[in-house]
Amino acid sequence: MSDPPPQTRAPHGLGARLALVALALPLAVLAEVSIALFVIWIVGVSTLFVGVGIALLLAAMLGTRLVAGLHRQYASRVLAVPIARPYLRSAPGAGPVRRLSTVLTDPASWRDWAWLLVNATVGFALQILTFTLFIAGVFYLIYPFLWAVTPRQVFSSPFGFYTINHLADALVLVPIGLFFLSLWWLTALPIARGYARLAVSLLAPTKGSALRARVSQLTTSRAETVDTQAAELRRIERDLHDGAQARLVSLGMSLGLAEELLARDPEAARSLLAEARAATTSALAELRDLVRGIHPPVLADRGLDGAVRALALASPLPTTVSVALPGRLPAPVESAGYFAVAECLTNAIKHSRARSIAIDIGHADGRLQLRVRDDGQGGASLAGGTGLSGIQRRLAAFDGQLSLESPPGGPTEVRMSLPCELSSPRTSPSSGTA
């Protein structure tokens, strides 16, 4: 499931009403297209066992979902709420017949078909009403001007029974224009919102489909988390085997040789003990690095604030850190946030050619908000193999979200959020530059 778009304010004012007028005719045309699509559905179902029936149904499916998607976007903007796609997904690698079967058995498809009929009738009438009220209001408001600048026979009888012989007669129509414009002003937004709610009632996910999508998302994120944890365990095992374990084996051999040489060659034994001490130091350093990669001690001691500042201090690029957390976060959330920021910071250092990096951390609406921004060359993508997809999988295990803005030429901004509650108070927000 894609991340829902951020909520915005519902449109209002003159600009919003004029936008609704501009959209009225295109939406009315889509309403008539709905009739054509419904007819194609009927013909396709009637000829399903003929070769042309499958082609017609596939075409109708694509057209219907395109029209429904446009109306979801319209309703989302009018109501200022995100509206997700409710459709079931076909199995990977499914052929046209299997995909068509999924569409025909998908409850959301039947609701789309119902929407085609509703949109072709009620939707068409509502859009034409909004457009007509506005055009009529403007027409009668400027009628005296039109009467004055055109030949008399063109605008001489606006109602068929009221003949205009003088400009004063034309001015009588101005209040009618004001009446229509006032009616349009009062009804444009209510009509749009009612139309949008009607669309939502048929095109938005139902509780059942939302639950199925949620279960599918959790199943996918759980599988990805298990895979990630298995890969992390293999990495730890490999690091232990190739690093600290090898050094400890070498240390044991050096100590054994030193024990044998101690009596007959003290100088050689002393040299082996010095090598053993150096190997011990190296093994401890590798173990510390390994532990830091699993869960940094600074994260446990100083929380997300101190751990991220430690990352910034170690960064070769000027890195600004701004933290506004009113309390301590749960340890799993701190760990996920820390490693997400660390990966973003590593990506920026390695790939962005940036001159500076900014990290912002905050908490709002029960979610940890993370932002990493660099002034580099841009062009990053979630499919670019730079670790962002791994961050997305890590956050998905916590029901987190990641969004990326990285136009060519930069800047690149990664926004992440995790649901969490604060566990202990904090004195004040802090900021600084490393």
TrEMBL record:
InterPro entries: HATPase_C_sf, HATPase_dom, Put_sensor_dom, Sensor_HK_TwoCompSys, Sig_transdc_His_kin_sub3_dim/P
CDD domains, per database record: HATPase_UhpB-NarQ-NarX-like (cd16917)
Top EC class of this enzyme: transferase
UniProt domain Histidine kinase/HSP90-like ATPase: residue ranges: 333-422
TM region(s), chain numbering: 20-42, 48-68, 116-143, 163-187
Catalysed reactions, as listed in the record: ATP + protein L-histidine = ADP + protein N-phospho-L-histidine
Ranges annotated as biased composition (Polar residues): 424-434
Source species of the chain: Jatrophihabitans telluris
GO molecular function, one term: kinase activity
Enzyme Commission designation: 2.7.13.3
Residue ranges of the region described as Disordered: 404-434
Protein name: histidine kinase
The entry's keywords: ATP-binding, Kinase, Membrane, Nucleotide-binding, Phosphoprotein, Transferase, Transmembrane, Transmembrane helix, Two-component regulatory system
Source organism superkingdom: Bacteria
